[in-house]
Design brief:
89 residues, globular, mainly alpha
């Protein structure tokens, strides 16, 4: 949502997940860097799991990504609220 609000659009082409994470940095600025980097690392690990082997991610890692996703959601919502105060949820 932050990418769209910032005026960017990511199309479903090769590399679009990576481009999405790069655009998070553009849209949110420094506040999005740690999340973009974290989720890029997760994306790379998922590719290893999907394409070469299974049972690589641990339950702890799965819990961590859920927590980071929740944190990121809150960051994005706060950013949108600050940039677009008239937006209705």
């Amino acid at each position: 949502m932050a990418i769209a609000c910032a005026g960017y659009r990511v199309t479903a082409k090769t590399g679009h997940h990576r481009i999405s994470f790069d655009n998070i940095k553009l849209a949110l600025g420094a506040g999005g860097d740690k999340y973009a980097d974290y989720f890029e690392t997760c994306r790379r690990k998922r590719n290893v799991i999907d394409y070469t082997r299974s049972h690589v991610a641990t339950d702890t890692e799965a819990q961590e990504i859920l927590e980071k996703a929740s944190e990121f959601y809150e960051v994005v919502e706060a950013w949108i609220d600050s940039k677009f105060p008239n937006r209705k949820r």
